[in-house]
Write a structure and sequence with these properties.
Layout (H helix, E strand, L loop, with lengths): L13 E5 L4 E6 L2 E5 L3 E4 L5 E6 L7 E4 L15 E10 H4 L1 E7 L2 H16 L1 H4 L3 E14 L2 E14 L3 H4 L24
Parallel strand pairs: 1-8
Antiparallel strand pairs: 1-2, 2-3, 4-7, 4-9, 5-6, 5-7, 7-8, 9-10
């Protein structure tokens, strides 16, 4: 299945942020393609924390929390805390993709973005932010230099209908008070 096909069954196309290189990648036709400074709608209303274990050559083992505030027991010593969020962009990703990361720098940037979302009056109206990646900040740590993505909220839109069409194996459901918008799908 290509990234640009509609998701079917329990497969959700994914996007990766490589914090060691400061680069974004989408998978298309079994090949990872770099995406420069993507612009997307972030479904921050339905973001979830998760225990994640990324194993080389295998699908990740992800155990989603019910929400951002309710914890579940850590499945193993190999699992690390992370964030799972759906993003939408026809232009950057070819539709809806899932971003799952347990990188400290990526989670920190997403946490700051979520705090902006929660504080904004538009979020109380059921709107979602259109986010532009403006680059990456180099962070030196115990394991060398990693890169924290930098995000800017450009505007707010109604929840794209594409999120609701997502066949999602973790049974993530849209917030009931939001209304899908048909007009925003071609902008991103």
């Amino acid at each position: 299945m290509s990234l640009y096909d509609a998701p079917t069954g329990d497969f959700t196309p994914f996007v990766k942020y490589n914090a060691k290189a400061g680069r974004w990648y989408v998978k298309k036709d079994d090949e990872e393609l770099e995406v420069q400074n993507p612009v997307f709608v972030a479904d921050l209303k339905n973001a979830k924390k998760a225990w994640m274990w990324f194993m080389e050559g295998q699908a990740p083992d992800v155990k989603l929390f019910p929400d951002l505030t309710t914890a579940i027991p850590k499945p193993s010593e190999n699992h690390k805390m992370g964030i799972s969020i759906n993003l939408f962009s026809e232009a950057s990703f070819g539709g809806v993709v899932k971003l799952e990361s347990n990188s400290i720098n990526t989670c920190s940037a997403l946490g700051a973005l979520h705090a902006l979302y929660e504080a904004a009056p538009e979020s109380k109206e059921g709107k979602l932010p259109v986010v532009r990646v403006t680059g990456a900040e180099a962070i030196k740590g115990n394991y060398g230099t990693n890169y924290k993505p930098t995000f800017v909220i450009e505007k707010w839109v109604d929840r794209p209908a594409a999120f609701d069409a997502l066949a999602d194996s973790d049974e993530q459901t849209p917030a009931p008070e939001t209304v899908p918008a048909a007009s925003s799908a071609s902008e991103f």
